[in-house]
């Protein structure tokens, strides 16, 4: 369960980073 939460948080951070830095993707 804890691992699932960590994965979700990492995905959320990655998506936010991609939204604020679209030129890098």
Automatic annotation (TrEMBL):
GO terms for molecular function: P-type potassium transmembrane transporter activity. InterPro entries: KdpF. It comes from the Bacteria. Pfam families: Potass_KdpF (PF09604). GO terms for cellular component: plasma membrane. This is K(+)-transporting ATPase subunit F.
């Amino acid at each position: 369960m804890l691992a699932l939460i960590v994965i979700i948080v990492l995905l959320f951070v990655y998506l936010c980073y991609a939204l604020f830095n679209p030129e890098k993707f």
